[in-house]
Amino acid sequence: MTGQGKAGNDVDKKPGDLSDISETLLVTLYCRAVESETRDPIIVDRKACEIARKLDERLAASPIRMHRMLANRALPRYLPANMSLRARDFDRYVQEFLSKAPDGAIVNMGCGLDSRCFRVDNGQALWFNLDLPEVIEFRRQFLEETDRYRSISSSVLDFSWMDGVKAAGRRDHMFMAEGLLMYFHEDQVKALVLELLRRFPGSELVAEVTSSWIVRMLHGPFGRGSMQRKIGFARGVTFSFGVDSGDHFERWDPRIEFLDERFYCNETERKLGWLRHMVRFRKFKYAQWIVHYRLG
Fold first, then answer.
1. Separation of CA 263 from chain center
2. Alpha-carbon distance 276 to 148, whole Å?
3. 53 belongs to a structural domain
4. 3 state SS of 243
5. What is the pLDDT of residue 30?
6. What's the number of domains the chain is made of?
7. Is 10 domain-assigned?
8. At a CB cut-off of 8 Å and minimum separation 6, what does 39 contact?
9. Positive or negative CA dihedral for 243, 291, 88, 102?
10. The domain that contains 248 carries what CATH number?
11. Could you tell me where the beta strands, DSSP code E, fall in the chain?
12. How many CA atoms lie less than 13 Å away from 150 in the CB half-sphere?
């Protein structure tokens, strides 16, 4: 865990030095920035806009196609809206949690360049932003750390990071996994959730999940390479963990309680274009969504 300090002014680390999966953080960042600058934005993320402007020149000159697409704002039209709807729902979950536990701790697992702690902070909460060392090093160039905004440089699967969260002494905890769990295997996700249950009884977990059929499709001949073609992700980026229902985690331990679920991709948001018509069908509605649990 880091101490106090501010992010540097210079972008010293090349985005290309990030691993293939870690580089997906650039896409979510630019989605929030692009949406923030539209008319009637779904979300306003001034930090994302600021970081994107700092990265534009470097990404535009990059040999990596995805980088150039981002610098030129050449994203699929529905994607900024989709990612911003997801971010807004996670924001709302945090706001609901803080309305009950204003001095609680929020742990953003796989935080990337997320700036939620600046969007919905209440002045009392303790924020932990957890990601791989390469990501935290990159993140520190743009986002300030303080006594209440702390970084943890670790794999989420190395459970020693929980020691620092526990030592902070906050009574209430919310753990978030936005755009994270689908990159793991089920045994890894299960081990993580059960360890959170053991170490933080009574905590809440808000996680984005993907359906099993999406995972199978991405590993099949039709889906293989689709994320590379449409968004420019590297070939090693794909999903591994999928569920068939929102209460999937309950089968791992009777003390895990499924509370609710939200579908950020909805048919009322016109900015989603053709995608909003697809979610009228249950199979597509449950393609990717958010689940909410109490652990213990």
1. 15
2. 38
3. no
4. strand
5. 97
6. 1
7. no
8. none
9. negative
10. 3.40.50.150
11. 105-109, 126-131, 149-153, 173-177, 203-210, 256-262, 288-295
12. 18
DSSP state of 272: G
Give domain status of residue 221, yes or no.
Answer: yes
Position 232 scores a pLDDT of 45
Of 204, 218, 195, 138, the closest CA to residue 170 belongs to 204
What is the pTM (predicted TM-score) of this model? 0.88
Helix (H) or strand (E) holding 145: none
Both structure tokens of 1? 């865990």
Q: Which tokens in the block code for residue 68?
A: 């150039």
Report helix, strand or coil for 90. helix
Task: List, in order, residues 6 or more apart from 27 with CB less than 8 Å away.
Answer: 66, 70, 75, 79, 83, 231, 233
Question: Among 21, 91, 30, 31, which Cα is nearest to 55's?
Answer: 30
Residue positions counted in the chain = 296
* Three-state secondary structure call for residue 157: coil
CA 220 to chain centre: 25
Secondary structure letter of residue 271 according to DSSP? G
Q: Which domain holds residue 173?
A: 91-295
Nearest to 25 by CA among 129, 90, 143, 110: 110
Q: 3-state DSSP call for residue 111? A: coil
* Residues of the chain predicted below pLDDT 70: 1-22, 220-237
**Contact partners, residue 71, CB within 8 Å, separation at least 6:** 55, 56, 57, 59, 60, 62
Q: Name the residue among 192, 161, 121, 174 with its Cα closest to residue 293.
A: 174
Token output for 183: 């990159």
Q: What is the pLDDT of residue 254?
A: 97
